[in-house]
Write a structure and sequence with these properties.
single chain; six-stranded parallel sheet; two-stranded antiparallel ribbon; globular
């Protein structure tokens, strides 16, 4: 039998993404489902947080551009602009050590075994809880999973079409069997394209009841 050592990754369940400046539609609905999952015997229960400086590169205000407009950004040191990334310019959100960066009220924080901070560098965007899109900087998440000999990651949180999807893509690329728990995810947009994108990458979609059958 193949080894099965599961971890739960809770992506960006923060005030600004649920009720604040960049609130995801119906984000509060998934708090009970996530808390139920946190009660299961995962070997690690890790939450990520956006934790931005006030002039982060993803903020429209940092470029004097309209919110939700787009432009190309580049990794630090790319003076020839050879590695562009199209960036949505967001409202200011989840600024480090402000109320908007805190976990949303009602989330069972006591059940967490670790917290991963991302987007802490002014000049580097980071949707994924693992690393930035240029693979310049890792968070502590890969080490945490390696230390627990994790084989399977189960991902929940906000937003399905951005940070959840990016985290799942990186999990697959890093060799983890990757599951996204659909009833414990909410997205910015309602097109459903994120689910197709994930399945094409070999990510398994599951619901909370199915997870309970696997891990309990």
């Amino acid at each position: 039998m193949a080894p099965f050592t599961p971890a739960l990754i809770v992506v960006d369940m923060q005030y600004d993404f649920v009720y604040g400046s960049l609130a995801v539609p119906n984000g509060s609905e998934i708090i009970p489902a996530i808390n139920e999952l946190l009660s299961h015997p995962f070997v690690a229960k890790i939450a990520s947080k956006d934790f931005h400086p006030p002039d982060h590169i993803s903020f429209a205000s940092a470029h004097d551009k309209p919110v939700f407009s787009k432009l190309n950004i580049y990794p630090p040191g790319d003076v020839k602009k050879e590695r562009p990334l199209e960036q949505v310019l967001w409202p200011v959100h989840c600024v480090a050590n402000t109320p908007g960066s805190e976990f949303v009220e009602g989330l069972d924080q006591d059940a967490l075994t670790a917290v991963v901070l991302k987007g802490t560098d002014q000049g580097i965007e980071m949707y994924s809880a693992f690393r930035d899109p240029w693979h310049i900087a890792n968070t502590v998440l890969p080490k945490l999973l390696n230390d627990s000999a994790v084989t399977d990651v189960f991902i929940v949180g906000i937003a399905g079409d951005y940070c959840v999807k990016s985290t799942a893509f990186d999990a697959v690329e890093l060799g983890y069997k990757t599951w996204v728990i659909r009833d414990a995810v909410r997205s910015v947009y309602d097109t459903g394209a994120e689910w197709q994108d994930m399945e094409k990458k070999g990510i398994r979609l599951i619901d909370s009841a199915g997870v309970k059958c696997l891990v309990v």
